Amino acid sequence: MLLQIPEVLTADELAHCQQRLAKAPWVDGRVTAGHQSAQAKDNLQLPEDCAEARELGALVLDALARNTTFFAGALPRHIFPPLFNCYRGGQSFGFHVDNAIRYDRRNGASSPIRTDLSATLFLSEPDSYEGGGLVIEDTYGTHTVKLAAGDMILYPASSLHRVEPVTRGQRVAAFFWIQSLVRDEAQRRLLLELDVSIQSLTQVSAPQPDLLRLTGIYHNLLRTWSET
Asked: 101-104 and 44-45: which strand pairing?
């Protein structure tokens, strides 16, 4: 399931990110790639422990914490701290699958996170660069994603995906992974559809007994499928 989430960042937050990243200390992006991914990866990335990465990563996490669509779609148990990358001058990232497990080694810790979902938060306006589409292959075909700055795409980390070459300008984004409370993608999709239906019925003042019944079904399914 691909889930587009608009306006994750406010205009002020987006402007702040763009200003900070314009002077950021970019390094070779292969420093965080696995063996196979490193052969396909050609981009720039912020060092995980630099001041800009820590500050803006915290900003993104705060934005996610208030986003109900993100929580409904991801049902996050753990979020890997956001990283930041930049593509320019023909740089690209060939087809690859994200590592199943990531280790958060910041602050002296080494905590494993299962990557159920991948997320890309676009930080450059799409008309400011050529190319740079995120191409995702799933059971429904091939999808090319290029969103407005401040918008985010959630997609299964198990999917084959790539970033097209950036031939003009630069494409800057935050990216990270989520371990969900519900590992199974089909189950997460059903829970999201049920949650959206409950919210829609609430807005049209559906009969309270029906809403209570649906809400009970949602929570009982979540109770059955979740890993805590």
From this structure: unpaired
Separation of first and last alpha carbons in the chain: 22
The CATH number of the domain holding residue 17 is 2.60.120.620
> Of 161, 130, 134, whose CA–CA distance to 147 is shortest?
134
State how far Cα 85 lies from the chain centre.
Answer: 13
How high is the pLDDT of residue 39?
A: 75
Residues of the chain predicted below pLDDT 50: none
Question: d(Cα 69, Cα 4) in Å, to the nearest integer?
Answer: 9
Q: How far apart are CA 166 and CA 92, in angstroms?
A: 7
- The pLDDT assigned to 165 comes to 98
Answer left, alpha or beta for residue 192, where phi above 0 means left and psi between -120 and 50 means alpha.
alpha
Q: Are 116 and 138 in the same domain?
A: yes
Containing structural domain, residue 61: 3-180
pLDDT at 34 (0 to 100): 58
Does the predicted model carry a pTM greater than 0.70? yes
